[in-house]
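[User] I have long wanted to understand how a fold can be written as tokens. Those tokens are not coordinates but codes from a learned vocabulary of shapes. Could you go through the record with me and say what the backbone is doing? Thank you; the sequence and its tokens follow:
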Amino acid sequence: MRIQKSWVIVLDCNYDTLRYHLAPKMRPIGPICLLMLGILLSRVVLCQEKCELRKDQHSIKVFSCTNDQSKFNSIKASFEVNASAPQLAAMIMDIVRYTEWQYNTTQAVILKTISRNELIYYAEIMSPWPISNRDLVVHLRVEQDSLTRKMVFHYRGLPDYIPQKEGIIRVPLSRSTWHIEPVGLNRLKVEYRMEIDPSGSLPPWLMNKLSAEGPYESFFALKNSILSRNYSKADAPFILD
């Protein structure tokens, strides 16, 4: 039997760009290769989504995106901010001050510090009456490319990490990413993506209609307050400037 080096391809449809994780393996040549290619191409079609611009103010753009995998739209946003990489990283990792700029966040506390660039936190989000407040537990991790200085912040919900609180609905699914790259001296470009299922009786059509407001208000507050907070390299020493 003839053997050649091939690649195993894992397709991730969670975000707007298709990401492939490649690992060399030794595989025999045969019809199974054509079968896997067909499956891959069908997954690419399923991953297509339609995005609609919902907010475009103060150089902040927020899109609401439909896809076949959820009844709740995902959110994409982009903006630029005047700050250094350590300053922005310090603000994002400053969990207890989320109440000052994250939309309708009434409480935010660190539950566990795993390392200087990784932690688990709890947050409660206020909802308009008569909708119950939501809360979520999030695993947050930051990584940075030492050559390009690009940063990625990964947020992933951990709904079963702590017991639920009476009268508050735990968010069963949440994940988001911040892709951040330098575009000038103390100038950063942010590409944000979020997927969330708020659970409860909130109608998907209503959630989809209102979902752009929170990210826009949060990023507007971040842009207008980050320099006044006097974050420095010392607040995020693990991030390269």
Notes: Residues 81 and 225 are 10 Å apart (CA to CA). The helical segments are 31-46, 85-93, 204-210, 213-225. Residues 1-29, 39-46 have pLDDT under 50 and may be disordered.
